[in-house]
């Protein structure tokens, strides 16, 4: 058992309804690790962060056997209204529940992200138009990014005579394969070559599906035709065909909200049936970066117990969808299973802006300008401006060109072609950081979440900087 300043105390935690499950789990750990006795009082509010000390004081009931009250960290203002009614010390905990062990003298509770429940099916779009080598290369990429199954996407209205060759090549290399076609003449050779899943089956091909001896995905003939979809499900189930249900996700502007409602209705009608969601209709057909869209769709799948998603990477803004789905499925699993918001767990899907921003104050910049006497110029981004420091001086401007002109006008030292090129490169990065609200660290790559590409440092400062604070030294 760890030593704690609260050891032996009886601690009352105050929280809201949403945080209760996570807090109870952490409280059990605190009792085991730090020798405290815990109780939890859930006040009549969903979000604990919305509480104020005055509001808590009107609802709090401190039991006689309590030694300390810990309230949510967002209530860290004036606690006098609480201290006036509580006969024991009242303290604000951390804003993140997972950091509660730190208050007791321990370490934050780690959240494992090695668990997931959603299978990723990655489609190779229009596979009949591709060479076998290209199909294999795409399959290898998708598998490396987290795909569990490689889907061979066929062309509507045509039969691909080489489908068995392509599927056989993939299977021989250890890939799990699905075939995306409605044509029985295309599906049968693919299944015989090793495809384990057929996308898709409806009233047009369900009779043939009974003889394929593999799992199939049932779709409606028309998105809102529940009757025919139910008939297909019943037809296949009666013949022992393993199946998944996909009510079809529609693009925005073509019934997106209604299609989400169909997934919820399908889960109600078939509470235990495996389900799939094809998410490309949203990621590929919306002018928006795919990371956030993939996260939200996989969150819906996790909550509705939809066990697989079909994604693709055709349009440029969705070209990393498979990797995004792999990250997202771990985040949503941890959130739903652990009853905790998916915040501060894994920031790899925060691509455009950074999770947090640390800037220098005006006083710190002035102090740095006085301290840095050499002419190996330091660059900082703060207060919406670029700052150049060196030789005991500081130049500031929003425009990198104007900043450089000011430096040259003041007779900037050590300004050979190589150094000028270096400063131009770094100020370009600093400009991007200023525009997007990103953290700029001189001689380090800008962070783009899972898209970050580390760069080789060409540091011309002559001395190292603190990696933790980013402060030039």
SSE blueprint:
Elements: E1 10-15, H1 20-34, E2 37-42, H2 53-59, E3 68-71, H3 80-85, E4 90-92, H4 100-103, E5 119-124, H5 132-145, E6 149-153, H6 163-172, E7 177-180, H7 184-192, E8 197-201, H8 206-209, E9 215-218, H9 226-238, E10 243-245, H10 256-269, E11 276-278, H11 280-283, H12 290-304, E12 308-311, H13 321-338, H14 362-371, E13 378-382, E14 385-390, E15 393-397, H15 400-409, H16 417-436
Parallel strand pairs: 1-2, 1-3, 3-4, 5-6, 5-12, 6-7, 7-8, 8-9, 9-10, 11-12
Antiparallel strand pairs: 13-14, 14-15
Summarize the structure.
With 473 residues, this protein is an alpha/beta fold. The protein has 16 helices and 15 strands.
Helix content: 25-40%
Overall, the morphology is flat
Largest sheet: 8 strands, parallel
In terms of DSSP E residues, the strand content is 5-15%
Number of helices: 16
- How many strand elements? 15
Could you state the oligomeric state of the chains shown? Answer: single chain
N-to-C span: 42 Å
Give the rounded overall mean pLDDT.
90
Unreliably modeled segments: 462-473
Helix and strand content put the structural class at alpha/beta
Strand order of the largest sheet: 10-9-8-7-6-5-12-11
Question: Explain this structure to me?
Answer:
The protein has 473 residues and is α/β, with parallel strands linked by helices. Helices cover 37% and strands 15% of the residues. The protein contains 16 helices and 15 strands. The chain has helices at residues 20-34, 53-59, 80-85, 100-103, 132-145, 163-172, 184-192, 206-209, 226-238, 256-269, 280-283, 290-304, 321-338, 362-371, 400-409, 417-436, and strands spanning 10-15, 37-42, 68-71, 90-92, 119-124, 149-153, 177-180, 197-201, 215-218, 243-245, 276-278, 308-311, 378-382, 385-390, 393-397. Strands 10-9-8-7-6-5-12-11 form an eight-stranded parallel beta sheet. Helix 6 (163-172) packs parallel to helix 7 and helix 12 crosses helix 13. The longest helix is centred in the last third of the chain and has 20 residues, at 417-436. Mean pLDDT is 90; it is low at 462-473.
């Amino acid at each position: 058992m760890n030593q704690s300043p609260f050891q032996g105390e009886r601690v009352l935690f105050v929280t809201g309804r949403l945080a209760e499950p996570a807090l109870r789990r952490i409280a059990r750990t605190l009792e085991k690790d730090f020798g405290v006795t815990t109780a939890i009082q859930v006040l009549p509010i969903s979000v604990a962060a919305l509480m104020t000390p005055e509001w808590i004081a009107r609802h709090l009931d401190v039991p006689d056997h309590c030694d300390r009250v810990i309230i949510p960290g967002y209530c860290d203002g004036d606690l006098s209204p609480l201290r006036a009614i509580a006969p024991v010390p009242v303290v604000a905990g951390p804003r993140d529940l997972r950091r509660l062990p730190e208050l007791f003298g321990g370490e934050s509770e780690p959240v494992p992200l090695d668990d997931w429940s959603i299978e990723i099916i990655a489609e190779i779009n229009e596979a009949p138009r591709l060479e076998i080598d290209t199909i294999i290369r795409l399959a290898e990429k998708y598998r490396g990014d987290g795909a569990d199954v490689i889907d061979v996407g066929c062309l509507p209205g045509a039969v691909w005579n080489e489908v068995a060759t392509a599927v056989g090549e993939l299977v021989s290399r250890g890939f799990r394969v699905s075939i995306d076609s409605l044509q029985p003449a295309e599906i049968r050779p693919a299944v015989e070559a090793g495809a384990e899943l057929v996308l898709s089956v409806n009233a047009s091909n369900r009779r043939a599906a009974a003889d394929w001896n593999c799992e199939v995905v049932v779709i409606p003939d028309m998105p809102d035709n529940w009757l025919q979809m139910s008939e297909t499900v019943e037809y296949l189930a009666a013949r022992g065909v393993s199946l998944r249900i996909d009510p079809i996700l529609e693009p925005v502007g073509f019934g997106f909200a209604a299609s989400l409602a169909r997934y919820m209705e399908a889960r109600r009608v078939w509470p235990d049936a495996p389900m799939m969601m094809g998410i490309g209709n949203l990621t590929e057909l919306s002018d928006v970066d795919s990371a956030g869209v993939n996260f939200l769709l996989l969150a819906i799948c996790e909550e509705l117990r939809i066990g697989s998603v079909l994604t693709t990477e055709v349009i440029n803004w969705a070209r990393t969808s498979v990797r995004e789905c792999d990250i997202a499925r771990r985040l949503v699993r941890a959130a739903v299973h652990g009853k905790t918001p998916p915040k501060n767990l894994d920031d790899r899907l925060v691509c455009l802006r950074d999770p947090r921003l640390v800037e220098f104050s005006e006083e710190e910049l002035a102090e740095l300008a006085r301290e840095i006497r050499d002419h190996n110029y330091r660059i900082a981004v703060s207060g919406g401006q670029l700052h150049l420091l060196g030789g005991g001086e500081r130049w500031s401007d929003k425009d990198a060109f104007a900043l450089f002109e000011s430096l040259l006008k003041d007779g900037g030292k050590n300004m050979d072609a190589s150094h000028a090129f270096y400063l131009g490169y770094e100020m370009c990065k600093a400009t991007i950081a200023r525009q997007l609200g990103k953290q700029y660290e001189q001689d380090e790559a800008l962070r783009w979440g899972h898209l970050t590409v580390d760069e080789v440092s060409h540091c011309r400062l002559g001395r190292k900087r603190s990696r933790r604070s980013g402060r030039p030294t």
